[in-house]
Design a protein that fits this description.
alpha/beta; 9 helices; globular; Rossmann fold
Length: 245
């Protein structure tokens, strides 16, 4: 599972699963390119990793500003090719169909589906030319079974699975693998703020009977990004403790 000589771009790297991916990928030898809109957390994450001797570039950037995304990607490519793309950035706008307006619904689709699509569109040709590439998209159990009051998030997380399978078909012949991870209830800042009345029922449906840790998702992402997973593509891997399986 070593990633030496590989350059990995991780979105939403300022906290949670993205932060854990950054730490695990650095330990595996990858050169990091981190993106997050949080100007307080991302520099701290980057400097913490850099202080341990690992190479890190970071960009405080709101991925919702898609018109500026091409310029950002050009800056990233100047320093070298991206071998690994981890599409992790996201947010939620809870609500039922009656309560979620069009703008909030579109915003959730934008960050979870359109942004990953655009990043894939910009980096996939280079990966195909190199005859090696790894794309890992972060989905959710809500994307596979839906959830009351999560119509936007569930729709977006289902869509990223469809995107994963389609791009896997396109990149396979050139050695590019594309997979999705389906996390369950993971100890991230939003989940820590979730009221127990919502968390407890999910934990009761989780075979392992507990909340997962961000590092447990990150280690699976590192596996999928490595040569150890060279014959795995177009699939979804549940990291959910059994919830949703």
């Amino acid at each position: 599972m070593l990633l030496s000589g590989k350059r990995a771009l991780i979105t939403g790297a300022g906290q949670g699963i993205g932060k854990a991916c950054a730490e695990v990928f650095a330990q595996k030898g990858a050169e990091l390119v981190l993106i997050d809109k949080n100007r307080k957390t991302l520099p701290y994450v980057a400097e913490s990793i850099r202080s341990k001797g690992y190479p890190v570039d970071f960009y405080v950037f709101d991925l919702m500003h898609t018109k500026k995304l091409e310029s950002l990607v050009s800056d990233i490519k100047i320093k070298g090719p991206i071998h690994i793309l981890i599409n992790n950035a996201g947010f939620d706008r809870p609500g039922t169909v009656e309560k979620v307006d069009k703008r909030r619904f579109v915003d959730v689709l934008m960050i979870h589906v359109i942004v990953p699509f655009l990043l894939i569109k910009m980096f996939l040709p280079d990966m195909r030319q190199m005859k090696w590439g790894r794309i890992v998209n972060i989905s959710s159990v809500y994307g596979t079974e839906g959830a009351k009051g999560e119509v936007a998030y569930s729709t977006a997380k289902a869509a990223i699975i469809g995107l994963t399978k389609s791009v896997a078909r396109e990149g396979g012949k050139d050695g590019v693998t594309v997979n999705a991870i389906v996390p369950g209830l993971i100890r991230t800042p939003p989940i820590l703020k979730m009221p127990d009345k919502y968390k407890v029922p999910i934990i009761s449906r989780t075979f392992l009977g507990r909340i997962g840790e961000p590092e447990e998702v990150a280690r699976v992402a590192a596996f999928l990004a490595s040569d150890d997973a060279s014959f795995i593509t177009g699939t979804t891997i549940f990291v959910s403790g059994g919830w949703g399986v």
